[in-house]
Amino acid sequence: MAELVTYETDGGVAIITINRPEVRNAMNYEAAVELSDAIDRFDVDRAASVGILTGAEGMFCAGMDLKALSATGKRPIVEPRGAFGICSKPPAKPVIAAVERFALGGGLEIALACDLIVVGADAKLGLPEVKRGLVAAAGGVIRLPRRIPSAVAMELALTGEPLDPHKALEYGLVSRVTEPGGTLEAARELAARIAVNAPLAIRTAKRIINESADWPIDKAFELQQPLVQVVRDSEDAKEGALAFVEKRPPQWKGR
Which one from 30, 129, 179, 211 is the annotated catalytic residue? Predict the structure, then answer.
């Protein structure tokens, strides 16, 4: 039986692929379990400091597999990572979503659980749940207004209509728009630029950016201090300074 989610590493980058192209990579319970397992593996994989999440055969994810839900009654929720095996608890390491053709409903919510999004120019991004009597409760109505202007997020959530990729770039939802079929290559290039940096510093920077959104400004520097101090005291910080002085690439240890 084919894996529903595949995992490979290349040059410090983990590539996680949703592999259900026969249903446009829609997520059933079993795929959510495999994605959750892949995220668990990525978080402890010392060979990878950044990940790419993509879909097989030039498609990202059409959301929840409603036919599977109707047939089995099993929602694609896997604790502790939540819906689709990622939405409630994304990995501690940064992940780039490489979105081709569509990220609709749960597909967009999976992309929103990633840190950066690269999207093809012909892709459809949207939360059509309201058209089916549902709410985008796997992070759509929570994360989207934190990534784009609230009025735009409100319109998308209430109309269920898709957002043009170039508008998504304008609003800051996505990092790059590529020609159709070019997202994985662009995501690899972006991931390589991240992967050359110190793993502990990368994870800590991601954590502070995410957590500090709720910090009062007069407490923010105090709250970040213990996290930053771990990085300052790390072997990698010493190595980074020494490598700079010696004019050579640093050899990171992740500690």
Answer: 129
**Choice among 30, 34, 100, 109 that is catalytic:** 109
Whether 239 is catalytic:
no
CATH superfamily of 5-195: 2-enoyl-CoA Hydratase; Chain A, domain 1 (3.90.226.10)
pLDDT above 80 for 1: no
Give the residue-averaged pLDDT of 157-172.
97
Based on the residue annotation, tell me whether 129 is a catalytic residue of this protein. yes
Domain boundaries, the chain: 5-195, 199-246
Helix axes 150-159, 140-147, angle to 10 degrees: 150
| Strand blocks (E) in the chain | 5-10, 13-18, 50-55, 77-78, 82-83, 95-99, 102-104, 116-120, 124-126, 176-178
Q: Is 231 helix (H, G, I), strand (E, B) or coil?
A: helix
Closest by alpha carbon to 92, among 236, 208, 224?
Answer: 208
Residue range 199-246 in CATH 1.10.12: yes
Q: What is the pTM of this model?
A: 0.95
